[in-house]
Amino acid sequence: MTRSLSNLVIAALVMVVLGVGAAQAAQWTFLNPTEVNLLERWDADGTYGLPVVYSGDPAWRAVDYSAPGSGWRVNKGGTPYLAYAEWTFPQEVTLGNLDVFWRAYNHSPNNYQFLDGDGNIIASNADAGRFEGLYTHPLSTPVTTDKLRLQFTMDTGTDYYLAECNNVGAYLASGESLAIDGTYNILYDEDAPATITGSGYSPTWYDHIHGSNGAKPDTAGGSIQFQLSQKYLINGAFIPQYDSGRYLANMALEVSMDGASWTTVYSDSEWHFRTENPPRELGYVVLNSPYSTAPLLAQYVRLSWGPNLNPVELGEFQLFGTPVPEPATLSVLALGGLALLRRRR
Q1: Which pLDDT does position 40 carry in this prediction?
Q2: Mean pLDDT score of the chain, rounded to an integer?
Q3: What b/e sequence results for 251-285 when a residue is b if at least 16 CB atoms lie within 10 Å of its CB, and e otherwise?
Q4: What crossing angle do the helices spanning 327-344 and 3-27 adopt, rounded to 10°?
């Protein structure tokens, strides 16, 4: 084989290896996409959440919280009125399941409905009394839509104070696939136990069913460290907190390739709670505008904080990233191609 032809073959092998790596990254999908809440997402512009519009009361919040007691609060009025939140998906999705978490019987309406983009009722729980906890709505027939609305009538009953919706979930139908491309929370697949320092935690603090009260560490400060099963380009993180009295102080988010040498993604010495200006009134939204949106390669992620007068309560930890092919795999492909060339010379 001539030198020029060999160079061409080597160049082609390099392109193939790079192509395999790109294809592998592009083909990573969630093991069970029907478990992934489509409303909890990281957008390409470095912001969190789907576009959502509200009606009925300004107390609706733009981001849901998974820990009971810190969600959307809709106040009663002097007369009944319709309240709703409506999400718009970037493209049509085929839904197979919906859920909603109400804080308590005396913090809920006595009716609610889910509607698709055409205004069709696809699930409801009307005139069933007050609600408390998680209510799931498997759809008998999958629904393809570009919007989802949760609506309910705020009545004037004396048996409740207000409506507090802690979380809403929208999930793909069986048979659908969902790429792991930095848009959705990778901890749905990376659900191995984290390494925890400090005390007073719930072991399921990042539970995606949203039924737990989250982490409640003591006042001395501590940290939680995740060792992921593979390397990711980390492009976002969202850490919802319980309420305005139990919040992070002296917080730091760090990433590492080996668990020994750490890079600080975000840190400050301030106290943070929901009455601050965006994005901190949402709890913590890190790697978010106006912060850095550059992806960082990592296999370890650590969240830490300092002492607090009150226990810190975290709803869950949502982490967003794109898997990166192992260089060793690509090297084997390249070396195999070079060995083939040597045998042919």
Answers
A1: 85
A2: 74
A3: bbbbbbeeeeebeebbeeeeebbbeeeebbbbbbb
A4: 150
Sign of CA dihedral 270, 276, 279, 285: positive
pTM strictly above 0.85: no
Residue pair 179/29 in contact (Cβ under 8 Å)? The answer is: yes
Report all structural domains of the chain as residue ranges with CATH numbers, in order of start.
3-25+328-344 (no CATH), 52-172 (2.60.120.260), 186-324 (2.60.120.260)
Give the model's confidence band at 22: pLDDT under 50 very low, under 70 low, under 90 confident, else very high: very low
**pLDDT above 60 (res 334):** no
Tell me whether the omega of the peptide bond preceding residue 90 falls within 30 degrees of 0, making it cis.
Answer: no
Q: Distance (Å, rounded) from C-alpha 127 to C-alpha 145?
A: 26
Strands (E), the chain: 52-55, 72-75, 81-102, 113-116, 121-124, 133-154, 162-172, 195-197, 222-239, 252-256, 262-267, 284-286, 296-305, 318-323
